[in-house]
Amino acid sequence: MDKEFDYTQIESYVKGELPAQARQSFEAEIAKDEALAQEVQLYQDIAQVAEWQGLFEEAAKEMEQQEHGTSSESAKVIPLAPKKRATPIRRYLSLAASLAVLVIAGIFLWQNLNRAGQDYFAEYYQAYPNDIAPITKGEAVSLTDLAQALQTYERREYAAALRLFEALPTQSDTTRFYRSMIALELEDPATAIQNLAAIRQNTTSTFQQAAAWYLTLAYLKQGDTENAQAILNTITQNERHLFYSRALELQEQLN
């Protein structure tokens, strides 16, 4: 599921304002949390571009002052070249500063689109039930390896369930589908997309329609609304699709 980040802490870390102990603790958390590491990297990129912009603007200002003979360092120096030669450099610096602004804007736009997709994922995602070997009350019974993996998934012990699924001697659409559900829970949409896309292409699979719906959500989790909408278009063309109603509602929100 989506995570809430402490952006005050992230900003303090990027600026180097965290105390040593807090910084070490935060870096340990980053090492264990891929989603947090990506968020921190994004803020570091933004900070770097902002720094470049500041340098460009300072250089452009200094060049402007030199052209008008107002620079503190060049006020008593006779220019060695005509002013017109300085103009292209100043224009280049101004262009570079403008480019830096565009890069910052692009980063924020990407971030907003990505968060919008993740918001839709959080709103529409529900863990797929274990309806193959559900947990039952009563006397303990001997479970097959697949049933044990499914029930571990049902108990939301996702890391342990993934190990059990991976240890199964044979893989099928059933195991790949539930491994995809685990991947979404473990913040690994890329793996989920790979598996779900393959299942979706198998028109005889029991999980073909479910794979299409969860593939849509996996794309949204990645911030890829274009691919998500493309799949929604195919789902909403079939009124008998298991996820038709939810797909139609989500499609209306994205449009």
Question: What do you see in this structure?
Answer:
This protein is an all-alpha fold and 255 residues long. It has helices at 7-14, 20-32, 34-67, 83-124, 145-154, 158-166, 173-185, 189-201, 208-221, 225-235, 244-254. Helix 9 (208-221) runs antiparallel to helix 10 and helix 10 (225-235) packs across helix 11. The longest helix has 42 residues, at 83-124. The chain starts with 6 loop residues before the first helix and ends with a helix. 20% of the residues are buried. Mean pLDDT is 81; it is low at 80-87 and 110-114.
Q: Number of helical runs?
A: 11
How is the main sheet built?
none
Mean model confidence by pLDDT: 81
Helix content: 55-70%
Determine the structural class based on helices, strands and strand pairing: mainly alpha
User: What percent strand?
Assistant: under 5%
Number of strands: 0
| Order of helical and strand elements | HHHHHHHHHHH
Q: Which residues sit in consecutive blocks of at least 5 with pLDDT less than 50?
A: 80-87, 110-114
Radius of gyration: 27 Å
Give the end-to-end Cα distance, rounded to a whole number of Å.
24 Å
Gross morphology is globular
